[in-house]
């Protein structure tokens, strides 16, 4: 099994978290990192496991350049039955109405295509005191125990 870690990041926090998780997921198989901006929707494979580390911007959207990933995916509308994924969301609670909305959107889109969420969706708060990379490792350890 391969683990595909996709990150959606504008200023590097979600990308850093994705990198921090790399060694944890390497316990489960070979790991590939993907910038969602590269639009590699073909890397979604029911035989593999998928992790999304993604920030929220705008009015609750994915970061600029990453929104097209799901536009392309929804247009292609593949049957993702059997595909398993987990979501590590990043946001900031000062954005009350759209706090961590991108992570919720990812869950909706993937489950809407038949995929199955594994574990709890994490919500990192940039206004909080939690170290994002430490939390990413802790979360990844919980997820890897379930795959
Ligand atoms: C201009 C701007 C808009 C943002 N909008 C939201 C938002 O709507 N909801 C949210 O939860 N966080 C929002 N954030 C917070 C980011 O998602 C958060 O800081 C995240 O850690 C950034 O990740 P990145 O460095 O990978 O881009 C916003 C941040 C900026 C700078």
TrEMBL record:
<dbReference type="InterPro" id="IPR008254">
    <property type="entry name" value="Flavodoxin/NO_synth"/>
</dbReference>
<dbReference type="InterPro" id="IPR029039">
    <property type="entry name" value="Flavoprotein-like_sf"/>
</dbReference>
<dbReference type="GO" id="GO:0050660">
    <property type="term" value="F:flavin adenine dinucleotide binding"/>
</dbReference>
<dbReference type="GO" id="GO:0010181">
    <property type="term" value="F:FMN binding"/>
</dbReference>
<feature type="domain" description="Flavodoxin-like">
    <location>
        <begin position="3"/>
        <end position="144"/>
    </location>
</feature>
<dbReference type="GO" id="GO:0005829">
    <property type="term" value="C:cytosol"/>
</dbReference>
<keyword id="KW-0285">Flavoprotein</keyword>
<dbReference type="GO" id="GO:0004783">
    <property type="term" value="F:sulfite reductase (NADPH) activity"/>
</dbReference>
<dbReference type="Pfam" id="PF00258">
    <property type="entry name" value="Flavodoxin_1"/>
</dbReference>
<protein>
    <submittedName>
        <fullName>Nitric oxide synthase</fullName>
    </submittedName>
</protein>
<dbReference type="InterPro" id="IPR001094">
    <property type="entry name" value="Flavdoxin-like"/>
</dbReference>
